[in-house]
Amino acid sequence: MLVEQIMTREVVTLSPDNTLQEALDLSHHHRLRHLPVVQDGLLVGLISDRDLRAAAPSTLEQAESDQILHDIRVEQLMIKDVITAHPLDFVEDAAAQIYKHSVGCLPVVSQGKLTGIVTERDILRNLVEMMGVNAPTSRIEVEVPDKTGMLANISDLLRARRINTSAVMVFPSAKEGYRTIVFRIRTMDPRRFIQDIEAAGYRVVGHPSMMTDGEV
């Protein structure tokens, strides 16, 4: 899935000449945590609600210092070296950028112009959907040798049972020379599928039916 498929296109923005008070008002009115700063359609900065709160006078100082919010312009506080995404980036690559740089959002830019914004919440919602955990499913983990054809072999067992799959993920196994394949399958009773896997010589390592009475 691409960033352009999950980003917000109608972006609330600021001008560099806006005051901090105007930025605070906009942030509160739209309940936004991040406001891109745009000039002539081009992204020139980003300011967050955290930056604005840090710049705002404390309650004790407010009576004397409130004017400062009307005197300081956004360009004096905004971040100018903004981490961005492109509309055609893959969602998982955008997620990696958010994680790597510890940022809460990525303005989406094409040819210098702001075309949208994607937040960590957008990314998380999309990953939940990609992993198939937003609908009733069963999760099965299968340990297989790290060699070609293992995924196809397990998929053949699913096809024989006429069970649809919501998501498939492959992870390194703690056991050397093996991989772990995680299936999200559209059935709440996967016991026969588990029996098929074990009869084929593979080990199911992650499903509630594998727990002992003391673990449940």
TrEMBL record:
Q: Which domain of life is it from?
A: Bacteria
Q: Which CDD domains match?
A: CBS_pair_AcuB_like (cd04584)
Keyword Nucleotide-binding attributed? no
> Can you give the residue ranges of the CBS domain?
7-65, 78-137
Is-annotated flag, keyword Transmembrane helix? no
One of the Pfam families matching this protein, by short name: CBS
Q: Which SUPFAM superfamilies match?
A: ACT-like (SSF55021), CBS-domain pair (SSF54631)
Instruction: Write out the entry's keywords from A to Z.
Output: CBS domain
* Alphabetized PANTHER family for the sequence: CBS DOMAIN-CONTAINING PROTEIN, CBS DOMAIN-CONTAINING PROTEIN CBSX3, MITOCHONDRIAL
Question: What name does this protein carry?
Answer: Acetoin utilization protein AcuB
Organism lineage string: Bacteria, Bacillati, Bacillota, Bacilli, Bacillales
